[in-house]
Amino acid sequence: MPSSPHPATAPDGLDVLVVGAGFAGLYLLHRLRGLGLCALALEAGSGIGGTWHWNRYPGARCDVESMDYSYSFDPALEQEWSWTRRYPGQAEILAYIEHVADRFDLRRDVRTATRAAAAAWDGGDRVWRVRTDGGTTYAARYLVMATGCLSMPKAPGIEGLDRFQGRVLHTGRWPHGEVDFTGRRVAVVGTGSSGIQAVPVIAEQAAEVTVFQRTANFSLPANDRPLAPDEQEAVKRRYREHRAQARRSPTGIPGRKADRSALEVPEAERTATYWDAWERGGLFGMLRSYNDLTTDADANATAADFIRERIAETVDDPATAEALAPRSHPFGTKRPCIDSGYYAAFNRDGVRLVDLRAEPLAGATPDGVATARGAYPADDLVLATGYDAMTGALTAVDPRGRGGLRLHEAWAEGPTAHLGLAVAGFPNMFTVTGPGSPSVLSNMVVSIEQHVEWITDLIASARERGAEVVEADPEAQRRWSAHVQEVAGATLFPRADSWYMGANVPGKPRVFMPYPGGVDVYRDVLEDVAASGYEGFRLS
Ligand code: N01
């Protein structure tokens, strides 16, 4: 194992300061060490793992299958690790990340419980100076933000929350150790992926669960199950090929690319296709059934109708079923959820839905939640209210680039980043899965590996050329950002008030943030840029 060349206690003299020690930050440390560079990662959490450190809520599980949601960079690693279920749960993913950290001896270059509180580019010394919440300042030539896309909870926006006398639990800040709901009345606010996963599990224990829904969401069955050893072995036998297919696929998950419109097949055939995807379970099967579900409203409506029919036949109470049927946005334009028994949970005694469109939320009270129609007593309040997605964790560090330019000022009209990797005016700063990259529309681990490899290759190339400063060219950035908006404009995505659009955070500019052109297309673009000697970047 190569040893890190930097003395672990030295606050200065780093080549690279990494912010975050989840999937991205840890792989960065590994790659940078392999290049002989001094790198250190600051991690706000008390442990490594990022998303999977924080999201310990009941039912937390990935919506990408285990065999795909894992690192591919080391063939021995992928052979030696075994998954137990088709979709990995939070504890199993965290155990995997911890295994990787130990196997590659990464922990000694991570400072946990250390938040990057401020960062400023020092143009004189050509270094980033990063101050932690503990008051330590680090200087590093490069700053790589591996802060995650969904890591900064948004303000819940619930009046009177501080008056509530019971437990308040945010899904993304879930306590360590068991949270017992036995005999308790639980209010859950929010019906995105987190709420939809948590509700059926909490309902198994709690005396009462009241779900406060503002926007009904599309949710598909996960059909999670144990992963049979022979099934796992079959993938492992051809893992290299499987990974290569993932990298060349639109979503970072191998699979058939649909080549037909939903509207060009007879209804019976289309329905059979949707049934097949529904029964197989998972997110991408349904979305990939036809090639125009995210671009043509009529095609999309065929899938949306199918899902609404499944909700209607699952939920016993017709009024609840109707309230659960999503009608405010096309299927897939908000991240669809995958669930294990969400709709059926409403058939249990003690589980009820409160439709906030019919009775708006008034706020929290000392002993529960109030709406325009009445009071709902609760012992626990679960906030599944989501994140300041894609930009929140970046602007929270408040990076200041050339001339003191602040990132949130540079992004006042919406985030612009060249290739989702670098921001003009912020030299030597890179973002892993930043706005303008496929990121949240893809299997995150595939996108993370790609960015980490590309960024570290660029740093190595700059060093070889004797360049100390790498910066995105503003004109190249403008062209890429315009391209992202053009591609998004040809889809149905902008029709939803989604966190993809920044619409869930009051005052946030409304811009479609991820790149919807596909992992495969994006990979070609990045490879061409690297082959051209990093056209669109200034190296000096
Ligand atoms: O957050 P969300 P999430 N009053 O923003 C509601 C990933 N993820 O944590 O839609 C009332 O999706 C809000 O209502 P509305 C995945 O990418 C993946 O669930 O704004 N309601 C919405 O219903 C996912 O998309 C996995 O009208 C309020 C909910 O809270 C992303 O993370 C698991 C409210 C927030 O939904 C975020 O998911 C979990 C208020 N004041 C997460 N404020 C898997 O891999 C907010 N809401 C399976």
Give an overview of the whole structure:
Helix content is 32%, strand content 16%. The protein is globular and about 70 Å long. Mean pLDDT is 96; it is low at 1-11. The strands form 5 sheets. Strands 1, 2, 3, 4, 5, 6, 17 and 18 form an 8-stranded mixed beta sheet that branches. The chain starts with 13 loop residues before the first strand and ends with a strand. The chain is α/β, with parallel strands linked by helices and 540 residues long. The protein has 17 helices and 20 strands. β4 (116-122) and β5 (127-132) form a beta hairpin. The chain binds 3-acetylpyridine adenine dinucleotide. 3-acetylpyridine adenine dinucleotide (N01) binds at residues 61-63, 150, 156-158, 171, 189-195, 197, 212, 214-215, 335, 338, 356, 361, 384-387, 440, 499, 504.
